[in-house]
Automatic annotation (TrEMBL):
Name used for this protein in its record: HlyD family efflux transporter periplasmic adaptor subunit
Cross-referenced Gene3D superfamilies: 2.40.50.100, Helix hairpin bin
Compartments, as annotated in UniProt: Membrane
Organism: Steroidobacter gossypii
UniProt keyword list: Membrane, Transmembrane, Transmembrane helix
Main location: membrane
Record InterPro entries: MFP (IPR050739)
Domain of life, source organism: Bacteria
Length: 394
């Protein structure tokens, strides 16, 4: 019995040592494999943003009223395709249109009046030029007659002088001398009369020229006033058309109406009241908001990313493959903006403006050991940071 018991104990000891060595060998192998994976394996690190949405590259254009008015007609319907310049909403502008018609009628009446005045001005100018020529001719004729009368008077004076000499010597009768002197006085009076006639003609010509000049200036002033009234009317028409255009809201760009509140014809809208928005047609992008300390210095253009849409389960529809396009350099609201572009060949059902979701950006590839050391360092630095924060607040 003792021998059998000892053999049994020895067998058990031999068996237990063999299994222990095997187990310890497996544990050591697993530990070495784990250490190798921890030190040399490469894993991708992602940064997550739960605040992301798909939107077009251009911002949506709001449809807003430029002035308080009453809706006369509207074609704003949710999801409707529109073209740039298409009329979407038209407000009541009846008073402006009536004033526009009045100004246009006033403008149409100005050209005939202006044409008549310009014709009258041209006729007056021709008449003034003709009268000036006639007056100049009359003055020249009077001067010629004056020169003739002056020559006659000079001849008569010379005749009187000679007859006086002959009368002194007794060769000519005294009556002839007296007759010659009377003729000389008569000729001199005729010359003086013609001299006065020349002055009268010149004075009359100056007076008539002044009257005609005043008349012409009055006509020119009326023409200028009509031209000024025409320009003012044109400016008033342009202003009224601009005011009427303010009563018409057109589509700013090609796109789709993405927002359209219920507004019926006859409803009154205040100035600046939003009547909808037009989402432009174009390439889509993803806008995500990240915590700054997680992405600054780590997210750069060209990095790969993916987006899971809230409305489309990723297990069924998959994810959107993205690429980082740009990152903002300013922090707003405690977040930093990152813009990403979808890769080509995506499911068109997933590319719709306004779809929300979450974005994961692949920031780096590193080993698990580095990640573990980084996490340990962050955990160890938190108490120190909390203590500094308490000291600063106290």
């Amino acid at each position: 019995m003792a021998t059998s018991f000892m053999r049994t104990c020895r067998s058990l000891a031999n068996d237990s040592s063999r299994y222990a060595l095997i187990i310890w060998g497996l544990v050591a192998a697993l530990l070495l494999a784990w250490l190798g994976w921890l030190s040399f394996a490469s894993v991708t690190t992602y940064e997550l943003s739960t605040s992301a949405r798909l939107e077009v590259a251009q911002a949506a254009h709001p449809i807003a009223a430029l002035l308080p008015a009453k809706i006369q007609s509207t074609s704003v319907r949710l999801g409707r395709q529109v073209k740039a310049g298409e009329v979407l909403v038209e407000f009541d502008a009846s008073s402006e249109r009536l004033r526009l018609a009045e100004e246009e009628a006033r403008l149409e009446a100005i050209p005939p009046q202006l044409q008549a005045l310009e014709k009258q001005l041209a006729d007056e100018q021709k008449a003034a030029e003709q009268a000036q020529r006639v007056t100049a001719s009359a003055v020249e004729h009077a001067r010629a007659r004056y020169q003739e009368a002056l020559a006659t008077a000079n001849f008569a004076d010379e005749n009187v002088r000679r007859l006086s000499q002959l009368s002194a010597s007794g060769r000519v009768a005294e009556i002839e001398q007296l007759r010659a002197r009377a003729e000389a006085v008569k000729a001199r009076s005729a010359a003086d009369a013609l001299s006065f006639e020349i002055k009268r003609l010149e004075a009359d010509a100056y007076g008539k020229a002044s009257e005609r000049s005043a008349s012409l200036e009055a006509l020119r002033r009326q023409v200028a006033e009509l031209k000024g009234a025409s320009e003012l009317t044109k400016a008033a028409i342009a202003r009224l058309r601009q005011d009427i255009e303010k009563h018409i809201i057109r589509a700013p760009v090609d796109g789709v109406i993405g927002e359209a509140p219920q507004l019926d014809v006859g409803a009154f809208v205040d100035e600046g009241g939003v009547l909808g928005s037009v989402v432009p047609s174009g390439n889509l992008r993803v806008v995500a908001e990240f915590v700054p300390e997680q992405v600054m210095g780590r997210v750069v253009p060209g990095q790969a990313a993916r987006m899971r849409l809230d409305g489309f389960p990723w297990a069924q529809f998959g994810t959107l493959a993205l690429k980082v396009e740009r990152m903002a350099s300013e922090i707003r609201g405690g977040r930093i903006r990152v813009e990403l572009t979808p890769e080509p060949g995506q499911d068109p059902r997933l590319l719709q403006h306004g779809l929300p979701g979450s974005v994961e950006v692949a920031v780096e590839r590193t080993t698990p050991l580095v990640l573990a050391l980084r996490a340990a360092g962050q955990r160890m630095s938190r108490p120190a940071q909390m203590g500094q924060a308490r000291e600063s607040t106290s």
